[in-house]
């Protein structure tokens, strides 16, 4: 797959880059994407929900009245779930929501998500000048990024490596979500309207595929 590299003004530079078909041109596996996204969202849940049972609720343990002879129903104590302030029956307890998904399935999901974006022509490659930042500057970065990708509702910016100055520049921009090449995940790809790679980040994909082919 061949893409043209654009500059920070959003114009074509005349240079192109080849993205490996093994990653950006595979058949899209929607079920693998669903599993990966489901695992990611489940892992975000804290699972700290908790209610008090009859044993934990406050109140006297004394029987309200004698068992028989009152003409009414038999009653225990105030902590009965039927009374206001009583315990809760079968309420939620703290537990994890983690779901196991095999590494190979997650890799297929990630490649499927990238391939889907590629088929929709929603992948851009921009010169590294975009992320050559000496100090955080949100306003300047926002204007520059808008020129690079003006029509996107939400963009995923993929960096070759973590850069604190770049991260601090875009973290307060609602329409930009960023990650490094090593931390990219299926949810971020699917959740974004378009994916913007820096030139150096895009080259890593080709290098990794070449390395894997040599090892094979």
Can you offer a commentary on this structure?
The structure is a single chain. The chain has 216 residues and is of the alpha/beta class. It has two domains: 2-45 and 101-215, 3-Layer(aba) Sandwich (Ribosomal Protein L4, Chain: A), CATH 3.40.1370.10; 47-95, no CATH class. Helix content is 35%, strand content 14%. The chain contains seven helices and six strands, in the order E-E-H-H-H-E-H-E-H-E-H-E-H. It has helices at 21-24, 30-43, 103-119, 138-148, 164-170, 186-191, 199-215; strands spanning 2-6, 12-18, 123-126, 155-159, 176-180, 194-198. It has a six-stranded mixed beta sheet. Helix 2 packs across helix 3 and helix 4 (138-148) packs across helix 5 (164-170). The longest helix is centred in the middle third of the chain and has 17 residues, at 103-119. The chain is elongated, with a radius of gyration of 27 Å. The model has no long low-confidence stretch (mean pLDDT 90). InterPro entries: Ribosomal_uL4 (IPR002136), Ribosomal_uL4-like (IPR013005), Ribosomal_uL4_dom_sf (IPR023574). Belongs to the universal ribosomal protein uL4 family.
């Amino acid at each position: 797959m061949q893409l043209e590299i654009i500059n920070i003004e959003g114009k074509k530079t005349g240079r192109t880059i080849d993205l490996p078909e093994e990653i950006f041109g595979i058949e899209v596996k929607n079920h693998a994407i669903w599993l990966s996204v489901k695992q990611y969202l489940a892992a975000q849940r804290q699972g700290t929900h908790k209610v008090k049972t009859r044993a934990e609720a406050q109140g006297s343990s004394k029987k309200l009245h004698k068992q028989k002879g009152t003409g009414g129903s038999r009653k225990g104590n105030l902590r009965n779930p039927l009374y206001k302030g009583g315990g809760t029956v079968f309420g939620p307890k703290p537990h994890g929501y983690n779901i196991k998904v095999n590494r190979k399935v997650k890799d297929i999901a990630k490649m499927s998500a990238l391939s889907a974006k590629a088929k929709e022509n929603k992948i851009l490659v921009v010169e590294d000048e975009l992320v050559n930042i000496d100090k955080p500057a949100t306003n300047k970065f926002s204007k520059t990024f808008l020129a690079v990708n003006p029509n996107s509702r939400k963009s995923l910016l993929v960096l070759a490596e973590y850069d604190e100055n770049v991260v601090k520049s875009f973290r307060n921009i609602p329409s930009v979500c960023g990650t490094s090449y090593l931390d990219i995940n299926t949810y971020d790809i699917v959740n974004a309207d378009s994916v913007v790679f820096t030139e150096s980040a895009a080259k890593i994909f080709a290098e990794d595929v070449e390395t894997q082919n040599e090892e094979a």
